[in-house]
Amino acid sequence: MDHQIYYHIFANPIGSAIAKQQIDKINCFISNAVIHCGIVNSDPKSASELSEHLNKIPNVKIIASAPTGNEWVTLLRLHEDCSKRWGSTQSILYCHTNGAFSTTLKPEIVPLWREWMEYFAFYRYRDAISVLDEGFTAYGFDAWLTPRRPIMLWLGFRPCFRFFSGNYWWSTARAISQIGLSGIDFAQRHTAEGEFLGRIPRMRSFDALRLIGLPSISSGAYTNYNDDFRHFSKLMEKSILLDEMRSDFQQYMTSRNVERS
Asked: How far apart are CA 114 and CA 121, in angstroms?
């Protein structure tokens, strides 16, 4: 089965550079990937050059484009396709050019944050597919959870899922098609993170931090602007994992360049 990747691009110079590299990473790490791109043409020149580049890649399709907007440009098309096009068990990855919109916020951290999302969503995608096959509704990195009162935990209720920090995640067409969109302010870009995935009925989320032995942080995250990334250093203690991914990607790019020369 092909893996359907919905990729949102904020096409300014930085976003276009991120997009080119991330599409290479997706094609390096994820087998049978079909990449559906939604583009916000923030910088017309960058957007035009990027579209020309994307149109040359066989497994990339531009499915939506807008002169202004946010992640909803792509998410609304994703929701429509899951409702009308894909079979219920179809695996879906959603990701985007994290860091392209707010280029001055934490520039020393955001590229590393983006790499962690790539590690769990791209490099370890087979874990995501296995998790979905086990019956989880969504797989992602660094889940924000709302804690339950002790009595509710005692009764067996899990903490309430809010979203995955950074908004990279895997789910299924069936789960996404069940998301209700009423009452969402699509003009607010943060609603794409906080008001989409968490609306899946009977959500059963899997925080990929479990794969590397780290717990979710109650009412917070390792990648959190609100606390100035206070817990990020704990995550970076595992950075040897990123080195493995970087090495594999470098080998892939070297081999591809040799084939083209």
From this structure: 10
Amino acid 152: pLDDT: 46
Contacts of 165 (CB under 8 A, 6+ apart): 141, 142, 143, 144, 221, 222, 223, 224
pLDDT at 135: 96
String of DSSP letters for 154-222:
HTTPPPEEEEETTS-EEEEHHHHHT---TT--TTSTTHHHHSSGGGSTT--EEEGGGGGT-PPPBT--S
Nearest Cα to 116, choosing from 11, 17, 208? 208
Q: Where are the alpha helices (DSSP H) in 13-55?
A: 13-29, 44-54
Pair 26, 57: CB distance under 8 Å: no
Return the amino acid letter for 89: T
* Cα R_g (the chain), whole angstroms: 18
pTM surpassing 0.90? yes
| Residue owning tokens 């020369």 | 261
Residue 258 to residues 29, 51, 251, Cα–Cα distance (Å): 19, 25, 11
Residue 129 three-state SS? helix
Q: For tokens 């050019």, name the residue.
A: 97
Local mean pLDDT, 10-residue blocks, the chain (261 residues)? 96 97 98 98 96 98 97 98 98 97 87 98 98 97 75 54 93 98 96 94 94 89 93 97 98 92 75
From the list 74, 76, 43, the residue with the least C-alpha distance to 61 is 74
